[in-house]
Design brief:
By secondary structure, the protein is an alpha/beta fold. It has helices spanning about 1-20, 70-85, 105-115, 125-130, 160-170; strands at about 40, 50, 60-65, 90-95, 120, 140, 150-155. It contains five helices and seven strands, in the order αβββαβαβαββα. The model is unreliable at about 15-25 (pLDDT under 50).
Length: about 180
Amino acid sequence: MVVLGLGAALGLVLVLATQLVGDKVVPVAEGRRAPGFTATTLDQTPVRRTLDDYRGQVVLLNVWATWCGPCRVEMPSIQRLHRQLAPEGLKVVAVAVDDVGSEQKIRDFVAGMGLTFDVLHEPSGRIERDWNAMGIPSTYVLDRSGTIRRMVRGSTEWDDSSTVAFVRGLLADGAAK
C-alpha cells in the first residue's frame, strides 16, 4: 500500500512538473515554437531588439562570434542568401555572442564582410542557453508563426539550391495572409 501511494505521488509530481515546465523539457527543436531573445543593435546608441520585432516574418537566426572560424566561413553564404531572398521577405538576424566591450570588433567584422542584414549583440550567454546552441555557429530558420523549421549546428552553405527552395517555400506559405 505504501509503495502504491509513493508511486501515485511520484506520478502526480511528474504530471504537474511537465505541465508547469512544459517547453523547458525540450526547449528547442524543429517543429516547436522558438524561444524569445533580447539583443542590442550595434548603433552608437544601442536599441534593444527581441524576437517579437520579427513577428510574422520568415527569419534566419544565426548565433555566431567574431572569433569563430566556422562562423567566418559561412557568413558570406548567409549574406548571399539575404541578398537573394530579402526582396521576397526573408529577414536575416545574426546575433553575435562576443564578450561585453566587443561592439567595435563586431562592427569591423560586419563592415569587412559587407554584411547588410541585422546584426545584434548578446554577450550574456543567455541566447546560447535559451536556444540550446551547442556550439556556434548555430542557425535556426523560423516560419511566420515563429516555429523552428530548420536547425543547423555548425557551418553550412546557406545559399545552396535546396536551402533557397526550402526558404522560398516558407516565404510563399502565408504570404498572402
